[in-house]
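Exercise: predict the structure of this protein bound to beta-L-arabinofuranose.
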Amino acid sequence: MKTILSILALIVTIPVLLAQNPLIMDQFTADPSARVFKGKVFVYPSHDIRIDTGRFATWFCMEDYHVFSSENLTQWHDHGVILRQQDVPWVDASSYSMWAPDCIEKNGKYYFYFPSIAKDKSVAEGRRIGVAISDSPTGPFSPLPKPIPGVYGIDPNLFVDHDGNTYIFWAMGGELLGARLKDNMIELASEPKEITTLPDGFKEGPWLFHRNGLYYLTFPHVAKNTERLAYAMGRHPLGPFEYKGVIMDESPVDCWTNHHSIIEYKGQWLLFYHHNDLSPHFDKNRSIKADSLFFNADGTIHKVKPSLRGVGITPADRPIQVDRFSLRAEEGVATAFVDSLHPQKGWFVSLINNGAWVKYNKVEFKNHSWKKMIARVRSQSDCSIEIRNNSFQGEMLAKLNVPKGNSWDNREALMMTVPQDVSDLFIVLSGDGPVAIDWIRFE
Ligand code: FUB
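Solution:
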């Protein structure tokens, strides 16, 4: 009975976050390694912390890991802390260097690989990679007492090939190394091999995946000042690889790092990555994001443009963050933090001129009898917001009158038409603005 109660308590207390981009709003997350386990997406990011004084005020500070999961790519569950630096016997617990991890499943066990700084700093300044093991993708993970012998560096990435062989890749001082792992998953089965056919500018964060007989080695790459995401293709997990080009350009806001993973989930390829959306003035406090990824007929990758909307279908009855729009009118649209001192509260969108609009893709209405639309709004003049279906001149679903005022209010309008299933919404200003919209939802 006690066990049942504690399982129930866990189920009830797992926080659910509703996400566009970034995916996680209540904490900083970076280096997302996404995996599909048991029909769900699990993301193992690193966890940036903000420290305003001392040596970490200007550098990465990370002491533990959380894992997040989602079935619909929109509602993300935080399963809490799965490993802390002080629980790992070999880690220097004053280093706060629990950097980019990865996790894979083999024979029903989950192996979590993580870099950190060892107490023994005699080689490679102590940069080592450890393993923690669990029977579940959400932990608890038990760390091994020692790091992987012969592996010095950061950013482990694991790959299980179709023949059952497992490979580990990591970065060390600008070199990309790879090796086969023994079946015990905790020792190397081959000497580390340097992957040498990449352009200058490789730093860290490798991610290998397989598609249609081809191996894609993808990695952050510095061509100018900051990291972009690039890739090479080959016919064996350890290469040789031929450089093919860029997956994502440098961050528009100069986040120096970008670190990614690529998975196929329910027939859709997804790119997970990070920028510093919730911390525009300090790029060591990052936030993970996801966008769809597409291939050309010859297997090369279409460049991905970071979006606000992200992936997944948003339920109509949850706050729809229309400031994370899919598209916007060319003029008359702006976004800002709701509270610049607390960025985790998110953004609002301002529609400034008569006719200004934003489009928000993929809202799920299903067949409920929707009665009203509710929006959190504030307007500098009397105006209306129109919610239209599929185009900015499309069928009107609801029209909300917003009186001039200085405070944020939740206002309601009756539905005029109920859309079927999944709809792309246009939110259009009618009259003088500016009107600020935090979110909309339907009941
Ligand atoms: O998160 C710390 C480091 O920044 C990672 O290990 C790198 O890949 C970069 O994202």
